[in-house]
UniProtKB/TrEMBL annotation:
Similarity field: Belongs to the nucleobase:cation symporter-2 (NCS2) (TC 2.A.40) family. Azg-like subfamily.
UniProt-recorded name of the protein: NCS2 family permease
Topology of the protein relative to the lipid bilayer: Multi-pass membrane protein
Residue ranges of the TM segments: 12-34, 46-66, 73-92, 98-122, 134-155, 170-187, 192-212, 232-253, 316-336, 342-361, 373-402, 414-430
A GO term, aspect molecular function: purine nucleobase transmembrane transporter activity
Localisation per UniProt entry: Cell membrane
Gene Ontology CC terms, in alphabetical order: plasma membrane
Source superkingdom: Bacteria
Keywords: Cell membrane, Membrane, Transmembrane, Transmembrane helix, Transport
Amino acid sequence: MERWFKLKERGTSVSTEIIAGITTFFTMVYIVVVNPGILSSTGMDFNGVFIATVLASIVATLIMGLWANYPIVMAPAMGLNAFFAYSVVAGSGVSWQIALGAVFVAGILFIILSLTSFRYMLLNAIPESLKHAITAGIGLFITTVGLQNAGIIAASESTLITIGNLSEPMAYLTIIGLLITVVLMAYNVKGYLFIGMVITAIIAWIMGLFQMPESIVSLPQGFTTTAFQLDIAGVFSNGLYTVIFTFLLITLFDTTGTMLGVAEQAGLMKDGKFPRSRGALLADAVGTTSGALFGTSPTSAYIESSTGVAAGGRTGLTAVVVSVLLALTLFFSPIISVISGIPAITSPALIIVGYFMINIISKIKWNDLEEAFPAFLIIILTPLTHSIATGIGVGFIFYPVLKLLRGKGKDVHPIFYIFAVLFFIQLVFLDH
């Protein structure tokens, strides 16, 4: 372990790395419940997505830990799973098999880009203000999904959205679960999202909202219901090129940004550069591609990895420990399946994740109209149109147009003009 992970060189030990891994696991394990819950709304089998979520996370995280030697965890990304379920499948009316095909194609492109410097060129082409806006817009979108699932907000013929019936059990239990989780968060309790879900689940059980399964532990079942069911031909026959582009775009800077942030926190950056970046980026790319084969939405680096770093994690051994613990969750599918069927248990996690994502709007230069207005459009239109791709598209069209009208067209990267044209064609001529 010393030779492979360079424990002494990074000032850590096996015991510290194990504790860091356990800490990270409890802060991110909510995804094995939330992700299948979101994707199963498309008609996908819950157990199949659950297994796919765990396996894709393990594959990507092991590559990150064993090859790149970083204490960073990979798993299906919040936001991308919502885009998969609500924008691609529900919004575009295509099957989940075709949506998986789009993820696979995006994954192959990830792998190709990760082996070249073109990935960094794409990242550099997107202005920082729009990167922050996309994150914030997705955060609002996820929060909206959480509030809607819980019944706290509801459809209205006169105002489109209105307050729901808060006397309904799911609505007030969500509020209780949200308060419990926020209090845990305020007191810096490690794993507050997961612990909040457990406490809310216990309350739901006491209220009689669900019955405990006959067996809590069982062998994994249902993998073949989603595994290798992707439809790649359907991606091209339905012209889902902007869907592929959106998967590619979001994961590009979301994963890279998270990796850089966690690496910097751990003191692993060298002269402002990201060592062994190819292995880290390939972990993301391979995780996304394998996840599509298994039956889940794209993977991404998890910001929750920072909790393990705060606990002392400095090497890939932290990631390996998380992978082992994730593997153990495969045998608890009966209880996880039951819990996921209660929106009040998972909705608080969605709302809080949205809160963290929208925090980034403070980094947008709001006094610069050319930067701020396109960012504003992305943030507001993503939840209102219930489409991440639409929000991004409108912002990406307005940005170069404003720059050109202000005589600053040369400030825009040439590739960005291609982005704008592609989104314009999609929104005006194809998105009907």
